[in-house]
Specification:
about 35% strand, about 20% helix, about 350 residues, Alpha-Beta Plaits, alpha+beta, 7 helices
């Protein structure tokens, strides 16, 4: 993952603001009304509209795992495998993603590491998913070890303690620094896993809707937003493939007994057919970026970083956010406030 910044591990859930929020605003407001804020990007003069609306978010339990390995290749291989099939809790068994890469001087065993986050509705379901994914995807991956990356969390899940039984009585407890770990014999040598992992109430569902004249410009803007978030924001993950969702959903269905179905008001291909279309006339492609984070501040920071990067791309006409009028969750991120406009 070339665009992940190698940075130190901040174990605290109150992560610092990224430098994007500390710098001067890249967007200049040139017009504003109740629905839209028209802005010009300071770097290239590109003009687009920002929806005068908010992203609606909800709480989920989160675990944060540090995977170390002999090489970045194997750390990322384990990270990608462990966070697979975890885009949306609506139909996936969890939500998960890669947060970043750590240099060897920042990890407990002095090897390069990959940070991942896993989310679920309850801490019991989270423990089950962490145990399954850690056992099937990290323990089986060459050279890896696994450590807790939320040591300050009050809720402690006995993930490693459960996995130790795979050692069939040959496992041994040990200490690495102040961390209690288990050394489980495997064919390669041994697998080291921390005894307990922290779990916290975190934030899920931060989002951006990137609306563009063409699919090409929309995808480019979404890629730029994802790259910028990975480079600048701490404590967040983007659970969808490559950080981008092309098939956003609405709750339920108009016709079938489904928990979710295509978000038809935001489908450009049928904007002339449906009566409740929300697609502007000059928009022919929409992508969504979903952001989960350890707290509300880091999610807001990531949203701001993504918006600024996407707004710079020619062909992007509007950037908005999805909400359900406050019915989905108690947390809101107003785009105007996030961008400090």
């Amino acid at each position: 993952m070339k665009n992940i910044l190698k940075r130190g591990l901040n174990m605290s859930t109150s992560t610092k603001q990224s430098k994007s929020m500390e710098s001067s605003n890249d967007l200049e407001v040139i017009n504003e009304n109740e629905e839209l804020i028209t802005v010009k990007h300071s770097q290239n003069g590109n003009i687009c509209s920002i929806g005068n609306t908010f992203a609606e978010m909800f709480p989920m339990w989160a675990g944060r795992i540090l995977i170390t390995a002999d090489t970045e290749k194997w750390a990322l291989t384990a990270a990608r495998t462990t966070t697979g099939f975890a885009a949306s809790i609506i139909m996936s068994p969890a939500e998960a993603g890669i947060e970043g890469i750590l240099s060897p001087d920042k990890t407990p065993d002095g090897r390069i590491g990959a940070l991942i986050q896993i989310y679920h509705r309850t801490w019991r379901d989270l423990k089950n998913q962490m145990s399954l994914r850690l056992g099937q995807c990290i323990m089986t991956c060459p050279t890896t070890a696994s450590f807790d990356a939320l040591p300050e969390a009050k809720r402690r899940l006995k993930v490693g303690r459960s996995l130790r039984l795979f050692g069939d009585g040959f496992q041994k407890s040990d200490m690495i620094g102040e961390r209690k770990v288990w050394r489980i014999p495997v064919m390669e040598g041994e697998f080291i896993v921390e005894d307990r992992f922290g779990a916290i109430k975190a934030i899920a569902g931060g989002n951006l809707l990137i609306m563009a004249e063409t699919q090409k410009s929309g995808l480019k803007a979404s890629e730029e937003a994802v790259n910028s978030i990975f480079q600048e924001a701490n404590g967040v993950i983007l659970p969808f493939p490559g950080g981008i969702c092309r098939a956003g959903s609405k709750a339920g269905s108009l016709k079938y007994k489904l928990p979710a179905s295509t978000n038809h008001p935001l489908c450009p291909k049928i904007k002339k057919i449906v009566t409740d279309s929300e697609v502007p006339d000059n928009v022919n492609s929409i992508y969504e970026i979903v952001i989960n984070g350890l707290n509300l501040n880091v999610v807001k920071t990531a949203m701001a970083q993504g918006i600024k990067a996407a707004a710079k791309v020619p062909g992007v006409t509007r950037i908005s956010a999805a909400n359900f009028g406050g019915r989905l969750g108690p947390y809101k991120a107003y785009l105007k406030e996030v961008l400090e406009l």
